[in-house]
Amino acid sequence: MSTHARPLAVRLAAASADELSALFLARGIKPDAPWQDFFDAAEALYEPASIERALIALPLSDAAALLRAAGGDAAPVPHLTALALQDPTGAVPVPVTEQLDGRTLPDAADEQPQAPTSAGDSAPVAERAFTTASRVADMLLVARETPLALLATGSLAAGEKKRLAEAGIEHDADDLRTIAEDAGLLSTHDRRVQVTTGSDAWLGLPFAARWARLATAFREALPAGIRDDGGGWLSPAIWPHAYPWDPSWPDRAAGLHRRARLLGLIAADGSEPAWAAALRKGAEADATALGSLVPAEVDKVFLQNDLTAIAPGPLQPGLEVRLRGMAERDSAQSSSYRFTAESVNRALIEGETEASVLEFLADLSLTGLPQPLSYLVTQTAQRHGLVRVWASDRGTVVTSSDPHLVEAIGIDRGLRPLGLTAEDGMLVSRVSAETVYWAMVDARYPATLVDAEGSAISMRRTPPVESAVAALPSYDDLIARLRERQGPDADAAWLDRELEAAVRAKALLIVEVGMPDGSTRELLLEATGLGGGRLRGLDRGADVERTLPVRSIRAVRLADVPTPG
């Protein structure tokens, strides 16, 4: 048992619940830790693995302060004291000093202000920021249709990268996903990446507001070691040195640099664009300078007889998102869109109607509404409601005004897993209405999901989820258990633990015993048992068995003489 744990145990017992929770959280303690008292807690916090985890998480300034303290600079650092890496007196406990042995600090770069990006170099940086915002939007639209799957490593699976490449995201997919997750637009659960309930609102924002949301979220997600006291960030030149003892930090720092460049916060040469300065200082994002360097957004398109739409520039985000809900984009690099029966049907599935589609296109068009496009929308809308699916007391019901279509569905081999049975000119299944509906859609039947009153229900295959907010672990039960075992006499409790450990190890002890006349006597005792308030052992000096009342023992320490055998 480490004698260094006793002072820490006393400190822990005197700490408030908030202080204990903060310490346990910072040290990565599990709420179900099997500790029985504060001595257990202190010993666990001084285990080498626990200290190593704490050292890895230290930013450069704290690491330097801890090394100075271990070298004799006794000035206490509140943060290090709160982490139990330093005593309130400024001394560094021996278990921590042992883990510091051989550790050094890198030669960090000086905190020099970034040079401003030149006017000539600002345009490509702004273009990169514009492209990043557009690619994040593309990723959200892909994930809105089907969640993205992750590998066990946390990276996007190869199949998902292929899907994203088809949407124009051929590079930086994992960094773009992280940017979106930091902004609360994507959420990951069980290795599935889904859009959040706030993603639709972001998709409807103009570029400047989109970028401001992404850039601000990036800043707020930066680790504390590269944040300054004003809420901004330190010079990117020192980011690689921010966590000197964390072996994973170089890769993390490189990722932060990449995402900062994608967002246009750092130029390729390390200089700072004008629009990044406010964010770096902790102020609100100001995209005025950035907006002046990106293409102007348009709010009209040319609708053509070949069922295509061509925008004369970047379409306003809200309009583009709605247009892409009813048309396919020809390529990620173009502003050309193509209408098909499938794309119009997708819009109807997600809540559009024939009237709303035609009205939107008429308002959007610079060339009126071409007759072929109007005919495609009308014909698709009429066919869309031909198969109706709803939930009833007898199960999920599938009906159609076309009896031949009902018959075709009933014998469709691809739909056999639904267990459809014919009853009174309709089909009935015990499978849920949503599952039956999507199976119909996948089989290219003109299905519509309706409620009990027959009104169409707009559906998304993958509904958005709430943005994931990591819940902090609660240490209330652990702290309560430690308090329950906290006795009024810490010295007596510590002595009991020392004696119990000595008995388990059959250790050879020097026991200081108080005699009835007030004097003390030291015995060289090989501990053999403890119980009933008495310590039993072999007195090596007299070669006799002794039983000593624990209340008479003043102190114990390990003997320098090794136990024979």
Give structural notes.
This protein has helices at 5-14, 17-26, 38-45, 48-56, 60-70, 78-82, 94-100, 119-145, 158-166, 173-182, 199-203, 207-220, 249-262, 277-280, 288-291, 317-324, 341-349, 354-364, 371-384, 403-410, 433-442, 476-484, 490-505, and strands at 148-149, 186-189, 192-195, 302-303, 308-310, 328-329, 336-338, 387-392, 395-400, 421-423, 426-429, 447-449, 508-514, 520-531, 534-539, 544-549, 553-558. The strands form 4 sheets. It has a 5-stranded mixed sheet with strand order 10-11-9-8-12. Strands 16-15-14-13-17 form a 5-stranded antiparallel sheet. The protein is α+β, with helices and mostly antiparallel strands. The mean pLDDT is 87.
Percent helix, as a range, is: 40-55%
Q: In whole angstroms, how far apart are the ends?
A: 21 Å
User: How much β-strand is present in the residues?
Assistant: 5-15%
Number of domains: 5
The multimeric state of the shown protein is single chain
Strand order of the largest sheet: 10-11-9-8-12
Average pLDDT score: 87
Rounded to an integer in angstroms, the radius of gyration calculated over CA atoms is 35 Å
Helices, by number, come to: 23
The major pleated sheet works out as:
5 strands, mixed
Low-confidence stretches: none
Helices and strands: which structural class? Answer: alpha+beta
Judging from the principal axes of the Cα atoms, what is the shape?
elongated
Number of E strands: 17
Strand and helix map with partners:
Blueprint: H1 5-14, H2 17-26, H3 38-45, H4 48-56, H5 60-70, H6 78-82, H7 94-100, H8 119-145, E1 148-149, H9 158-166, H10 173-182, E2 186-189, E3 192-195, H11 199-203, H12 207-220, H13 249-262, H14 277-280, H15 288-291, E4 302-303, E5 308-310, H16 317-324, E6 328-329, E7 336-338, H17 341-349, H18 354-364, H19 371-384, E8 387-392, E9 395-400, H20 403-410, E10 421-423, E11 426-429, H21 433-442, E12 447-449, H22 476-484, H23 490-505, E13 508-514, E14 520-531, E15 534-539, E16 544-549, E17 553-558
Parallel strand pairs: 8-12
Antiparallel strand pairs: 1-3, 2-3, 4-5, 5-7, 6-7, 8-9, 9-11, 10-11, 13-14, 13-17, 14-15, 15-16
Helix pairs in contact: 1-3, 8-10, 8-12, 17-19
